[in-house]
Amino acid sequence: MPSEPQRELFEEAARFGIRYGFTIRIHDARGPAAAVTFATDERQPKFERCINENGRVLQLMAMYFHAHALRKFTPDRIVDGVALSPRELECLEWAAQGKTAWEIGHILGIARRTAAFHLDNAKAKLGVHSICQAVARLVVSNSTMQ
Hints:
Blueprint: H1 4-15, E1 20-28, E2 31-40, H2 45-73, E3 77-79, E4 82-84, H3 86-96, H4 101-108, H5 112-126, H6 131-145
Antiparallel strand pairs: 1-2, 3-4
Helix pairs in contact: 3-5, 3-6, 4-5, 5-6
């Protein structure tokens, strides 16, 4: 039996025409973080078949959407406890893919020196001396967030 807050949520959703759906819970290192729901106004065999056939793809889409939204709405990204700017993180992520400062600059449409500047800032903030060390901190941070 649903709790009072759950019952109120279902009643409010029904007022908006949402009566049946498939909800994907999204968790991060801290536990439950968000949910994405695919919904309809009534139980329909076509909707159910679509959910059953594509449930895993919908879960993947929900996780990618959440990660993308989180990056867009979070001005800084925490890497191993350190806040990096979006551009510092972006350059560091490309470095993790094996790209040089010149290649990163070309990919992002910025000068090589600008890419190197952001990488140097990321290294300084992370307290490391090399790009390899910074990438290692990024990888460790990402693995603990999943």
